[in-house]
């Protein structure tokens, strides 16, 4: 079992798998990820998980959190982006790293089928450019989870445009949210 990254809301369920037969928990730490997925050079190199007849690529994308990865399922064309890209507030703790990771993700997906980009949260509403306030627990009109590769390109363009001075930027389907590490 592996994670997108090490934040508490993504690893809290680990203890439920403790000691379960046939389950290996891959801790969300850079060295552990490198070893588990054969990534010699972090974050430039892409690793993989061989499920047998099905390979999932593991793309290091630090920037939201240091031990962040994306997963690409070659069989379905689904790209799992964790907290890097989803319909909500994209919290960036290390801007240069996050930008470089987004560039590599764009590069990686070039020429590959991307059916859906799936992240881990929804904070965006169905009203373009508008997100629900922090802490909202009832979102009857929330944005759908699925995004596409166009959103990845839109994210990269937004980041490049604010490179000199990272600022909060509300886009139609997500909000770029540079901030200090928590
Ligand atoms: Zn997170
Ligand atoms: Zn999260």
Tally of helical runs: 4
The distinct ligands, each listed once, are:
zinc ion
Percentage of β-strand residues = 15-25%
Uncertain segments are none
Give the SSE order as H and E letters. HHEEEEEHEHEE
Q: Helix amount, in percent?
A: 10-25%
How would you concisely characterize the structure shown here?
This protein has helices at residues 8-11, 30-36, 95-109, 149-161, and strands at 47-50, 55-60, 69-73, 78-82, 89-92, 116-119, 169-170, 175-178.
Please characterize this protein's 3D structure.
This protein has helices spanning about 10, 30-35, 95-110, 150-160; strands at about 45-50, 55-60, 70-75, 80, 90, 115-120, 170, 175-180. About 20% of the residues lie in helices and about 20% in strands. It has 4 helices and 8 strands, in the order ααβββββαβαββ. It has about 180 residues and is an alpha/beta fold. The structure holds zinc ion (2 copies).
List the helices and strands and how they pair.
Layout: H1 8-11, H2 30-36, E1 47-50, E2 55-60, E3 69-73, E4 78-82, E5 89-92, H3 95-109, E6 116-119, H4 149-161, E7 169-170, E8 175-178
Parallel strand pairs: 4-6, 5-8
Antiparallel strand pairs: 1-2, 2-3, 3-4, 7-8
Helix pairs in contact: 3-4
The structure holds zinc ion (2 copies).
Residues 5, 7, 64-65, 83 line the site of one zinc ion (ZN).
């Amino acid at each position: 079992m592996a994670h997108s990254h090490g934040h508490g809301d993504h690893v809290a369920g680990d203890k439920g798998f403790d000691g379960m037969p046939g389950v290996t928990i891959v801790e969300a730490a850079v060295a552990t990820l490198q070893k588990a997925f054969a990534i010699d050079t972090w974050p430039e190199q892409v690793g993989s998980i061989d499920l047998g007849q099905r390979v999932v690529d593991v793309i290091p994308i630090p920037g939201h959190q240091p031990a962040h990865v994306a997963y690409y399922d070659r069989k379905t064309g689904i790209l799992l982006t964790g907290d890097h890209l989803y319909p909500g507030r994209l919290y960036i703790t290390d801007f240069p790293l996050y930008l470089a990771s987004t560039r590599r993700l764009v590069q990686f997906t070039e020429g590959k089928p991307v059916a859906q980009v799936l992240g881990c949260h929804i904070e965006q509403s169905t009203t373009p450019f508008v997100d629900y306030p922090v802490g909202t627990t009832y979102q009857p009109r929330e944005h759908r989870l699925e995004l596409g590769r166009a959103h990845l390109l839109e994210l990269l363009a937004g980041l490049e445009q604010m490179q000199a001075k990272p600022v909060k930027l509300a886009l139609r389907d997500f909000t770029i949210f540079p901030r200090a590490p928590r």
